[in-house]
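Person: I keep going back and forth on a fold encoding question. Show me how you would write down a chain together with its backbone fold. Please set it down just below, with no commentary around it:
Helper:
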Amino acid sequence: MVRKFDSAARFIPADPARRTLAGLREAAAGCRGCPLYAGATQTVFGEGPARAPLMLVGEQPGDREDMTGKPFVGPAGQLLDRALGDAGIDRRRTYVTNIVKHFKWVQRGKRRLHAKPGPLEVAACRPWLEAEIAALAPVGVVCLGATAAQGLLGRGVRVTVDRGKLFRSPLAGWVMPTIHPSALLRQIDEAERAAAYRAFVADLARAAEALAEGEEARATA
């Protein structure tokens, strides 16, 4: 029986040779590190090339992600793909994941609506993200939204203030917070939505610059 708030740490493979992205994905499928697994269809682990230089971290999978088992395949993911292209980032060279791997939701009629994961759920799931980062060794990490940003950089980070800034971190060369693309989908006014999208692309363009600089430094090291 799982304690109310356990940790994913005990599900991380003990053998370092199994801590590849493939090995971690296999192990995460059976994670029972917090109660969210009970209401989810499946674990939604990260996806992308094993040597992707850029990692994108969101909050948690949504309804469509929960059903397919793949991250960022819903409307927010489609918008993210568009913004990455506009910022000059090749989506095929990114690894996308979430700081929480199970869908937290509430029932509203026939619909399952997103429910924000709490700090204990984020903390319980963080070992998976740390293991993903260790296996990937990305040049940089972009945190999409406050949950991911505060989960990696601390509660003092405010996306509205710190978005687009590069933070040094022992986890990667740099970590940059920005908004989650789902925030753009909630914008009702068209002019405001367009302005918010341009600001989001500008943040990603800053990440693209830092990524190019980091890859050049790696190549000459």
Notes: Helices lie at 21-28, 63-68, 75-86, 119-136, 146-153, 159-162, 181-185, 190-220. Residues 190-220 form the longest helix (31 residues). The mean pLDDT is 94.
